[in-house]
Amino acid sequence: MSDKKRHQPWEDVAFNKDEQFRLKRIAVIREAAHAFKKKGYHNTSLEDIAGALGVTKGALYYYIKSKKEVLFESHLLAIEIAKNAADYAMAQSDDPRQIIASMICKYFELSTSDKGVSAVLTEFEALDPAMLEVIAAKRAEVSKWFQDIVARGIAEGSLHALDPGLATIFAFGSVNWMAHWYDPGGPFSSQEVGEAFARFILKGLDAVPGEGSMREPLRLPQV
Question: Are 164 and 144 in contact (CB under 8 A)?
Fold first, then answer.
């Protein structure tokens, strides 16, 4: 994502003051998330964020009060994006496989768009216990939703995962790591990556029934 696109909500002027405040606050969160991804949370200062946005540190304080608050809001925005992707997927189809594919593709699209955020999915130790509790509860809601979709697919016979909980950890672990490596200037668009990951994850959810218990030794090919 270009700097120009990332800064667009900050530069745009909304007629409604509340909406203008909301858009500029999101711009601060997005720019901070970008800086955290690039330099690391502990190596990024509020001065760095203000400088990237072309404003003074004093102006920045009008929208956020601390770096920790920005980190917290970055997590919340990433979860909101996941929920929006889930809502979108549910509106597209009743088929669990299609819901999973649509959700993953939409999540990649929203996360990498100029309205998204380079999700910061680490640095939990920097948050206060109360903040961690909020984040954990909201992440659990999204995980429970995905797990229920997988369980329904298993019950209906369209998916054959051995365990919905492990399937959810596998899927979210794969998708969330995108924040650490995806480069908009790289060889693949976010749509291409989203579709590829959707295929990988659905393939992983197609474990053949009767192939063996999860507790049986895995037979690996001899090298």
Answer: no
pLDDT in tens, 90-126: 999 999 999 999 999 999 888 877 555 555 556 777 8
Q: How far apart are CA 33 and CA 10, in angstroms?
A: 15
Nearest to 204 by CA among 142, 143, 161, 149: 161
Give start and end residues of each alpha helix (H) in the chain: 3-11, 17-39, 46-53, 57-60, 67-92, 96-112, 129-156, 164-176, 178-181, 190-204
Q: Rounded to an integer, what distance in angstroms lies between the CA atom of residue 131 and that of residue 98?
A: 34
Residue 4, class by beta-carbon neighbours within 10 Å (0-12 exposed, 13-18 middle, 19+ buried)?
exposed
pLDDT for 23: 82
Question: How crowded is residue 140: how many other Cβ atoms within 10 Å of its Cβ?
Answer: 11
Q: Does the global pTM surpass 0.90?
A: no
Kindly list the structural domains of the chain, giving each domain's residue range(s) and its CATH number in brackets, ordered by start. Answer: 3-204 (1.10.357.10)
Interior angle at CA 200, CA 92 and CA 189, nearest 5: 75
